[in-house]
Structures are given as C-alpha cells and as structure tokens.
Amino acid sequence: MSPRTYDLIVLGSGPAGEKGAAQAAYFGKSVAMVEKEPPPVYGGAAANTGTLPSKTLRETALFLSGFRNRQLEGLEFRWKGDVSIDLLLSRRKAVVGTEQKRILTNMNRHGVDLYEGTASFAGPHTISVRRKGAPETLLRGEVILIATGSAPYRPAAFRIDDPRIVDSDSILNIPDIPRELVVVGGGVIGCEYACMFAIMGSRVSLVETRERVLTFMDEEISDALMKEMGRLGVRFFLGDGVQRVDRRGQVLALNLESGATLTPDLVLISSGRSGNTASLGLERLGVEIDERGRINVDPTFQTSVPYVYAAGDVIKGPGLASTAMEQGRIAMIHAFGLEFQRDLSDLLPSGIYTIPECSMVGPTERDLLAQGIPYVVGKASYEANARGQIIGDTNGFLKLIFHEETMKLLGVHVIGEAATELVHIGLTALHAEAGAELFIRACYNYPTLSETYKYATYDALGRRARKRAGQPS
Ligand SMILES: Cc1cc2nc3c(=O)[nH]c(=O)nc-3n(C[C@H](O)[C@H](O)[C@H](O)COP(=O)(O)OP(=O)(O)OC[C@H]3O[C@@H](n4cnc5c(N)ncnc54)[C@H](O)[C@@H]3O)c2cc1C
Ligand SMILES: NC(=O)c1ccc[n+]([C@@H]2O[C@H](COP(=O)([O-])OP(=O)(O)OC[C@H]3O[C@@H](n4cnc5c(N)ncnc54)[C@H](O)[C@@H]3O)[C@@H](O)[C@H]2O)c1
Questions:
Q1: Which ligand lies nearest to the CA atom of residue 275 in the structure?
Q2: Which one of 122, 170, 333, 405 has the largest count of C-beta atoms within 10 Å of its C-beta?
Q3: Which ligand 2 atom is at minimum distance from the Cα of 241?
Q4: What is the tally of structural domains in the chain?
Q5: Cross-strand bridge partners of residue 251
Q6: Looking at residue 90, what is its pLDDT?
Q7: In-domain check, residue 115
Q8: pTM attached to this predicted model
Q9: Binding residues for NAD(+), per the UniProt record (predicted)?
C-alpha cells in the first residue's frame, strides 16, 4: 500500500511542533503529527518534564514555604519539613494534564492527524512510524518539520547508573527532598532548581566551570542573583568542576578540581542539552547537524535539504519554549509561502524562574560596550517602590539601558518578584522603538511595580544630564 500523503509531517508535539502544525493547518494544509510518547503525553519537555512541571513545583514550594511572606511583619519564613514529595508534586499532575488536553484539543480543532510512534526518515519525503507491537506506518510529506527537541547532556564523569545522580527529567521522580543537593552546571536549569531546593530546606552546592552563573545575563543582574541565592544558603563552587565521582558504600563523594569534596545525597546534572536527532536517519538525507546533535538551519529554519525544516530545541538557539513556538510558526510560513509574519523577531525575552525571578530583553551593558554603542543606564529599586514594600521584596530592581544620544530604549533587565511579567512593558516599548519619552508620559497604576519604568527613566535622564555637565553620574 502506498503511504498516505500530507502537505506537512511534523515530528514531535512540543511547542515547536504544535505551533508549526497549527500554523500550516490553519492555512488549509493537510498535516500529520508523529509523537513517540503515548497519548495523552503531548507537549514535549515544555508540558511534561521541563517548563510547566518545574514552574509548578516552584510555585508550590513558594506557597508551602511561606517564602513570599518572609519580610512581612509578624510572619515567619520557615520550610515546614513535614511536606511530602507527593504533596509537592501533586499540583504538577493537574497543570500538566490540563496542558496535554489543551494541545490535543488544539490539534483536533485544526484537523491534524496524530500518529503514535517513533519517527525516522525511511527515504526522501518518507517518514517511518514505529511503535512496539504495531506494524510500521509509512507517511509521505511534501514538507517535513523536525521538532524532536532535546535531552539532558551528561558529562563523562556522570555516565554512571546511580539513582542519586539525576537530570532535569529524572529529578521529577525522586522519592524525597534531598538533605544535601549538588547541582552541576549554573545555567538556567541549575540555578532554578538550586533556588527551589534551597527554599525547601536542602543544603545546596552549585558547581560551575565558568566564573559566574547565567553568563548571558547582564552582570549586575547575575551578581544580584548570586547574592540572593547566597542568602538562601546556596554555596557556589565557581571556576570549578567535578574531577571524579566516588561511590564508597552508601556515600557518594564528588571530588572537585579545587580539592573540595562534596558528599550529597542527590546530584542534579544541568550541564546543557543535546538535540534529539540520533535515530532520525538524517545521514540518509544529508541533513547537517553539529557536535551536540543539533540541526543546522538558515534564518527561515530550512535545513540543508530544502523541504526539511527544523525548529525548537533541536536546533542551536536560546532553547526556550517561547522561541520554539515562534520558530515553528515562521518555519511553516516560509515553507508554504503563507502571507503572514515573515521572520523571527530579534527581540527575544528570557525569563529565569529563580528565586527571585530574573528577566531580560535586548543587549546587556557588556554587549553595548563591545559594539561601541553609547548608552546610559537608569535603575529603579523595588525598595523605593510602594508595591515592592507591600509585597516585601525590597531587593529587586529594574535596569533600563537607553541609547545615550537618542534616549531610545535598548535593553531591559529585571530581578525581583514578577520580573518575567514586568519585562513585557519594556519588550513592547522596544517593538515600538520607543524611548524615555514614552515612560515619562505614561501614567501607571499606583501602587505597582510597573511604576519602576518611570523612575528608572528619570534616573537615566539624571545620569545623562550629570554626565553632560561633567559631574559624576
Ligand atoms: C527543566 C526545564 C525547565 C524549562 N523552563 C522553561 C521556561 O521556564 N521557559 C521556557 O520558555 N522554556 C523552558 N524550558 C525549555 C523548553 O521546555 C524547551 O525549549 C521546549 O520544550 C522546546 O520545545 P520543542 O518543541 O523544540 O521540543 P520538546 O518540547 O522537547 O518536544 C519534542 C517532542 O518530540 C518528541 N520526539 C522526540 N523524538 C521523536 C521521534 N523520533 N519521533 C516522534 N517524536 C519524537 C518528544 O517525545 C517530544 O514530545 C525548560 C526546559 C527544561 C528542561
Ligand atoms: N526559564 C527558562 O527559560 C528555562 C528554564 C530551564 C531551562 N531552560 C532551557 O533549557 C536549556 C538547558 O539548560 P541547562 O541549564 O542544562 O544548560 P545551559 O547550557 O544553559 O547551562 C549549562 C551550564 O553548565 C555549565 N557546565 C557545563 N558542563 C559542566 C561541568 N562538567 N561542570 C560544571 N559546569 C558545567 C556551563 O558552563 C553552563 O553554565 C537551556 O537552553 C535553557 O534556555 C530555560
């Protein structure tokens, strides 16, 4: 029997796959989606193992610990040690289940045919779908979108089978809250989990080969975050690495390059991710990948084979659910020549759900210095903001970076409660190519954290005026 033919076959039901499939189907294309996980496990890492579970766990930990009330008079911040891991994870099931249902409904609404099984290329335009206990299904697609995502990468020292060594997938199945946790890698995953476990009462050590965590962030923000994490009790081993893992009886010993030895009861490996491409048979088609298994694409997400597109974590990029969705859409707009948004915005925000949250969009001071762009910074603290006082977050701040001559907004950097929401005011201003004038003119609700935009702008104008007058800023 000849394979069923579709305009588009999407491999993977994560954010890149879902939005790519919906985009093409909305414009009348026939679409098949292949997902290796059995229903209802749609949504990839974003719904099942990454974004939603970790953010739900964070919210539950904040709630149960009373952390948000830590500076409210008469209330005490204390982790109630009798909380079981089941209680901690119970909300996750509800949130994840709702998201899985939403995705299934969305695909059904768009008339996307769903196939369960592992996809691979059986030949040009032909996808094989294999599932245990079922005959192989062959599908033919005029266009193929690879959206198979990524998986945690394990450095050589940690390629041992030990339930005490987990990654961001297996950490969701641990039996207890660890007494002592070592996090290996100070990227987004490492910092987010380090904060969560610290407020749940674990003694947390973070080992990072570089000299700072979250190196893509503005240094003032990452310094402030490290200070906050230090307040939570996180110990940093920076410019360090794990040389050897020893298992002596019940004791797990990590020998660091610095000479220190850590004896945790849980180790979280958060040292980056690799693209899920190994079993796709890409070599048969000549689709190029890099050393981490990620597919090389052009700005329209086309691979080295013209009818094959790739989006999301399976390509090199920010590795965010938010960008994966946009990439999936743009890829399909290009593949089918749809009359719609043409390219991916270069204004991609990052939201880091540490405790406290951090968020950014646009260049850092370091980027601007490297490019020789004259700029002026303006800051507003949560401490000097009525809402900041009310909620008891007095360490947060908003930092705006303006072009020194035009006072156009260039970059937005925030640390503190609601930072991942607050950044969107700046994001919208950046899209509108607005600057200081907008924030001066705007009237914000009082008391709100949003007001920090006005005061950070006043601060920038003041600094600029002082600089121009030859006074210290
Ligand atoms: C702990 C953690 C926290 C995160 N937090 C955030 C956050 O707060 N905000 C944010 O924006 N991003 C976050 N991310 C990143 C985000 O989850 C990913 O960027 C996003 O899921 C990538 O989407 P994707 O569609 O490319 O791939 P995925 O979501 O990984 O989906 C890929 C899908 O393809 C399927 N698949 C793989 N191989 C095959 C095959 N051969 N055949 C068929 N199906 C296959 C998989 O089963 C999966 O369902 C987080 C990630 C992690 C790990
Ligand atoms: N809030 C969010 O948006 C969010 C949350 C979690 C994850 N994510 C995404 O998930 C992806 C993966 O995150 P990640 O944190 O695993 O990777 P990452 O690449 O962001 O960070 C890995 C860190 O580990 C360090 N490292 C690497 N090998 C090491 C070793 N052997 N010892 C010590 N340190 C080592 C690196 O220097 C780096 O700082 C990222 O793309 C991220 O954007 C996003």
A1: 1
A2: 333
A3: 32
A4: 3
A5: 248
A6: 81
A7: yes
A8: 0.96
A9: 185-192, 208, 272
Helix (H, G, I), strand (E, B) or coil at 278: coil
- Range of the structural domain that residue 397 is part of: 356-468
Residue 77 maps to a domain: yes
Q: Identify which of 169, 183, 189 to mutate to test ligand 2's pocket (most ligand atoms within 8 A of the CB).
A: 189
170 and 123 housed in the same domain:
no
Instruction: Say what the pLDDT of residue 66 is.
Output: 78
Closest CA to 95 of 172, 159, 181: 172
Q: Residues with Cβ < 8 Å from 161, sequence gap 6 or more?
A: none
Residue 303 and residue 196 in one domain? no
What is the distance in angstroms between the CA of the first residue and the CA of the last residue of the chain?
76
List binding-site positions: 55, 148-150, 185-192, 208, 272, 313
Q: Is the CB of 319 under 6 A from ligand 2?
A: yes
Q: Which ligand is nearest to the CA of 245?
A: 2
Residue 362 has a pLDDT of: 98
**pLDDT computed for residue 51 by the predictor:** 95
Does any ligand 1 atom lie closer than 6 A to the CB of residue 270? no
* Ligand nearest to the Cα of 214, by number: 2
Q: Does a cis peptide bond (omega within 30 degrees of 0) precede residue 135?
A: no
User: pLDDT at position 70, please?
Assistant: 66
Per-residue pLDDT, 13:
98
454 inside domain: yes
CA distance 404 to 457: 12
Query: Could you tell me the CATH number of the domain that includes residue 225?
Result: 3.50.50.60
Distance 407 CA to ligand 2 centre (A): 34
Domain boundary among 287, 306, 335: 335
Rounded to whole angstroms, the Cα distance separating 210 from 215 reads 8
Query: How does pLDDT run across 138-194, given as a tens digit for each residue?
Result: 999 999 999 999 999 999 889 888 999 999 999 999 999 999 999 999 999 999 999
Intervals of the chain under pLDDT 50:
none
Are 118 and 72 found together in one domain?
yes
Distance 57 CA to ligand 1 centre (A): 17
Whether residue 398 is found in the same domain as residue 457 = yes
Whether residue 185 sits in one domain with residue 225: yes
Q: How far apart are CA 138 and CA 420, in angstroms?
A: 43
Q: Are residues 56 and 191 in the same domain?
A: no
| Core vs surface per residue 31-43: b (16+ CB within 10 A) or e | bbbbbbbeeebbb
Which residue ranges are tagged as binding site for NAD(+)? 185-192, 208, 272
- Same domain for 141 and 38? yes
Index of the ligand 1 atom closest to the CA of residue 311: 26
Annotated binding site for FAD: 55, 148-150, 313
